[in-house]
Amino acid sequence: MVPRFFVVLLVAVCTVSHAARAEPGLTAEAAALPAPDADGFITLFNGHDLAGWEGLADYWSVKDGAISGHQAKEMSKQTFLILSALTVRNFELHFRYRFASPEGNSGIQFRATVLDAHTYRVGGYQADFDAERQYDGTIYDEAGVAGDRGTMSNRGERTTWDSENRRHVEPLGQGTADLLAFIKVGDWNNAILMARGNHITYSINGHIMTDLVDGSPAALQEGRLALQLHQGFTMDIRFKDLKMKSLN
After folding, report:
1. pLDDT of res. 35
2. Which residues contact 36 (CB under 8 A, 6 or more apart)?
3. Which of the ends of the chain has fewer CB neighbours closer than 10 A, N or C?
């Protein structure tokens, strides 16, 4: 049996689908989440354990009050920590991340599909980041689930995919080099990811990094939320202060 963290979540948050669609190996039960705060946000990580999440036990744990995704290169996997019993649609997600290693690649998956429930592999939209800041602030199509479109919107760009799957790009107010200066190396970065309909924005440390409008037939409407460990690295990625509210 693949070790995993059995978790639970109430399905009444974040237009997050009210029926949990269980894949083999993932729990389908729901349990109470904390009540929303005054601004409507619900805490997704309690700072103590991985209640509410599922993944490979040897790769995910809690260290110093943060979620830690860690692996050695020779044993590395493309694997994810999945928010269980919950699918997300329109939402505002706040989180903090930092790399506690000199190398590594990670991201937040959203509206994602579980491709392999036993290895916790998912695909779909990803708010990307890495230890060298090459991909921070970009939106990526993990595993080609959103039409095999690779990097869908680059840092410093406003990207529109039209109904014929054509890409249209215009610059944001600040270019990629200017925005790179706001992203910290080895320290905590504050990120906000917003998805409403086909419009997605991804901000880091108070600056909009990329703006995506996905009008493609391959656009994703709902799915799972997950944290990534990327194969091929000796790495340790940390997450904390994860909270989400509905944007109905």
Report:
1. 83
2. 13, 42, 245
3. N
Q: What angle do CA 103, 109, 114 make, to 5 degrees?
A: 115
pLDDT for the residue numbered 10 = 37
Low-confidence ranges of the chain (pLDDT < 50): 1-32
pTM for this predicted structure:
0.89
pLDDT digits (tens, 9 = 90+) for 187-208: 999 999 999 999 999 999 999 9
Residue spans of alpha helices (H) in 5-140:
none
Domains assigned to the chain: 42-246 (2.60.120.560)
Residue in this structure with the two tokens 């700072």, named with its chain if needed = 47
Kindly report the number of other CB atoms within 10 A of residue 132's CB atom: 13
Spatial separation of the C-alpha atoms in residues 50 and 210, rounded to whole Å: 30
3-state secondary structure of 74: helix
Cα dihedral 37, 40, 41, 42 sign? positive
Is 180 in a helix, a strand, or coil?
Answer: helix
- The dihedrals phi and psi of 57, each to the nearest 5 degrees, come to -60, -30
Of 101, 97, 164, 165, which is closest to residue 137 (Cα–Cα)?
97
Residue 53 and residue 6 in contact, taking contact as beta carbons nearer than 8 Å: no
